Design the sequence.
């Protein structure tokens, strides 16, 4: 569904980097990225649970918009297994190897932009990849859980887990944009919504 009204924008660190509304996913985000976070290469990363539901429609919107704008930008896609176990050194290394592979022609570089679509695990891990790949590249957060919308996507905290504990290796790396599409909340299981509300109250 296309977005027509101007969404709510919230300032963080002096910039209106948080965008909140319904129906942002798709055409609105593509237009905003091309205008405000320009790049020749965007890499959309999500987990296998979300991929089939959200990636094909975004891919279609991206293709339509770049055709209209006669842009040469490209969209690469990557998916990881869902869950906390993916927030690991191994998953991070696999993704980095994929980004560095000669199969990415032209290769991903310092001007590439990562789009992290998912909950806290995706945001934490993909944000850390962005913080360290090529000594730091831009990324945007598209949180799909209430907990990620109100907490983990905001503040620039990124990390992976180790056998010694959770979030022990990471960095502070601010996203260039945070797109909070409230439509994602309609598909959340009740327990996930309650956990997010508990964080809001806390």
Sequence:
């Amino acid at each position: 569904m296309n977005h027509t009204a101007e969404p709510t924008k919230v300032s963080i660190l002096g910039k209106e980097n948080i965008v909140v509304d319904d129906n942002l996913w798709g055409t609105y985000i593509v237009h905003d990225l091309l205008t405000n976070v320009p790049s020749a290469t965007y890499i959309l990363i999500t987990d296998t649970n979300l991929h089939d539901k959200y990636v094909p429609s975004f891919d279609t919107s991206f293709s339509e918009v770049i055709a209209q704008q006669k842009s040469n930008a490209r969209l690469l896609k990557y998916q990881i297994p869902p869950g906390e176990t993916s927030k690991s050194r191994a998953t991070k290394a696999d993704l980095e190897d994929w980004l560095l592979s000669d199969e990415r022609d032209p290769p991903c570089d310092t001007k590439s932009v990562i789009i992290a679509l998912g909950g806290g695990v995706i945001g934490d891990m993909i944000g850390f990849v962005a913080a360290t790949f090529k000594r730091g590249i831009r990324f945007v957060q598209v949180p799909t859980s209430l907990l990620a919308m109100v907490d983990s996507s905001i503040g620039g905290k990124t990390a992976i887990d180790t056998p010694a504990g959770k979030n022990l290796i990471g960095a502070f790396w601010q996203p260039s944009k945070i797109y909070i599409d409230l439509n994602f909340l309609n598909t959340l299981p009740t327990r996930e919504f309650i956990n997010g509300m508990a964080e809001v109250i806390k």
User: Anything to note?
Assistant: The chain is about 40% helix and 30% strand. The chain has a mean pLDDT of 91. The radius of gyration is 16 Å.
